[in-house]
Amino acid sequence: MNDVDPNLTSGPRVLRTPDHRFAELPDYPFEPHYVNVRLGDGSPTEVRMHYVDERPAQSVPGSGETILLLHGNPSWSYLYRHVIPPLVAAGHRCVALDLVGMGKSDKPVDRFRYTYQQHLDWLAEALFDQLDLRDLTMVCHDWGGTLGLRLLAEHPDRFRRVVAMNTGMKTGREDTSGEGWRHLATWLQFTQRSNPLTVSQVVAGLTTSTLDPAVLAAYDAPFPDDPYQHGVRRFAVLIPLTPQDEAAPAFEAAWKVLETSDIPFLCVFGEDDHVTGGRHDALSGRIPGAAGQPHAVLAGAHHFLQEDKPVQVAQAVNDFIRRTQPS
C-alpha cells in the first residue's frame, strides 16, 4: 500500500515518504528542515524539499563558512552523516539538501517531471530564493556535481570554492568507448529494467566498506515501493550521450563559463571509482581555479567515498577551506 499525503493529491500526484520509515536511522540524529518549491510547468502544486542544517556551538571557534553538501544518485543526505560532524566541530555550518525524488524530499509520480532543468530550478529556488545561501563552499558528488557545476556556472557570485567528488559534466561529445561509459550503459539498463530496484544494493556494490544491515535499510528508507523511485530511475537517462541531446547545449554553455572560472576548485576522488578510476583531469585539467590545488585520490575508496573514507573527506574539505581563506 502506498502512503500518500492527501494534501498533495489535488494537483499532479506527489508522494511523501512516511516519517516512520526514517525512525532510528543509525548515526543520523539531525533535525529535519524543509522548504517548499514549485513543481514546475506552471502547476500551482508545491513540493517539499528536506535539508539538514547543522551549525557549530557558539563556543566553538571557526571560520563561519557555510558548506553545501550535494548528494548524487541513488543516495540522499544520509551519505554525509559521518562527514558533517567533524566539519561542524571545525567551526563550519553544514547544509545537506535532499534532491526532489530522494531522501526525505517529496517524490512526484510523473517520471517526466524529473528533467535536468527542473532539478536545477528546484535547487536554485530552494538554495537561493528560499534559504538565500551565499559565500558557499560546495561539496558535490555524482549527480550532485553534475547539477552543482551548472549552479556554479550560472550563479558564481554565490560560491567561494568547490570540492568535487567522483563527478563530472558530460556534453555528449565525449568518447564513449571507454570502460567508464560501459559502466554507465550498464547502470542505465539496470535502473530501467530492475523491478524492484533495491537502492541499498547499488550503494553496497560501490563501496569498499561492508555496510551494516541498518545502514542499508537507511538507504532504502525513502523508497517504500516503485512509484517512489521514478526520480532515481530518471537520473540515468538524463546523461547526454550525443551533442543532439536536449540538455547538451546547457552543459556546453556551462563549460564556457567554467573554463574561465578562477574560483578555487578541488577534486577528491576515489581510487576505485568504477567510472573514473580516480582520474579527475576532465575537471582539474579544464577549470582554471583547479590549477595548483592539492587534488586527492583516496586509496581504498570506491564511488561512495563518503562511506569508505569520511574522515579523510572531511579533512580534505576543511584543509581546503583554511588554505583558500583570504589572509
Automatic annotation (TrEMBL):
What SUPFAM superfamilies does the annotation carry? alpha/beta-Hydrolases
Q: Which NCBIfam families match?
A: PRK00870.1 (NF002043)
- Note the Gene3D superfamilies from the entry: alpha/beta hydrolase
- Protein's UniProt keywords contain Transmembrane helix: no
Keywords of the record, alphabetical order, are:
Hydrolase
**Origin superkingdom:** Bacteria
Q: Does the keyword Hydrolase apply?
A: yes
The EC number of this protein is 3.8.1.5
| Name listed for the protein in its UniProt record | Haloalkane dehalogenase
